[in-house]
Amino acid sequence: MGTRSIVARAWQALCPAACGGAPLRVLELGAGDGTLLLAVARQIAPAWPAVELTLLDRQRIVSPATLAAFAELGWQVTVDVADVLDWAARPPDTAPGAAASSWDLIVTTLFLHHFEGAELDTLLMAIAARSQRFFACEPRRGWLALTGSHLIGAIGANAVTREDAVFSVHAGFRQRELTALWPAPAAAWQSREYTAGLFGHCFSTRRAQAHAWAQ
Asked: Could you tell me if 140 and 199 are in contact, meaning their C-beta atoms sit under 8 angstroms apart?
């Protein structure tokens, strides 16, 4: 569903282009092998020469080649191997804005729909407490996406992938569901929830007092 371009556009909208100063601190939750954000980095690196990126996943599957490719772009990358709910349970540093617990941007793609109920609430609460900006790109729950998920076998997808695709749509989001779940006063955050491409559903939010990064 063109996830790379969707993430890149959202990133650039949330964070105006860097003009020196401290590096942008970014955390990706459920990062997998890191190749999605590498593709995003290659697209936006000319405007973002200084980024400190942390890739969090419960498996260590980021290859040395991927880390080297980030380094070639001038991005500093740390791999954090942890379950995301364990990350959410870590006690945040008590100092406001401390580097250990505060991120300029937290990103997640095709990840939130794996959680529901209390787990999703816990995860969103931890993200809100630790970030200035947050962006999520998820499957959109709807008839068009569901129809598409049943047809991916026509392009050679195996049985597991077909089953996962259908599950993802059923577990996806629509309308303003993520906005309603966001655990912070509406006046304190500027949020937008919207469709993207044929099958994507996005949630983008920033603290109302978050500074323009170009300053």
From this structure: yes
Listed range (7-11, 88-92, 114-118, 207-211) with the worst mean pLDDT: 207-211
Per-residue pLDDT, 18: 59
pLDDT of 153 strictly over 90: no
pLDDT single digits (tens) 38-81: 999 999 988 877 899 999 999 999 999 999 999 999 999 999 99
3-state secondary structure the chain: CCHHHHHHHHHHHHCCCCCCCCCEEEEEECCCCCHHHHHHHHHHHHHCCCEEEEEEECCCCCCHHHHHHHHHCCEEEEEEECCHHHHHHCCCCCCCCCCCCCECEEEEECCHHHCCHHHHHHHHHHHHHHECEEEEEEEECCHHHHHHHHCHHHHCCCHHHHHHHHHHHHCCECCCHHHHHCCCCHHHEEEEEEEECCCEEEEEEEECCCCCCCC
Does 3.40.50.150 match the CATH number of domain 3-139+173-207?
yes
**Residue limits of CATH 3.40.50.150 in the chain:** 3-139+173-207
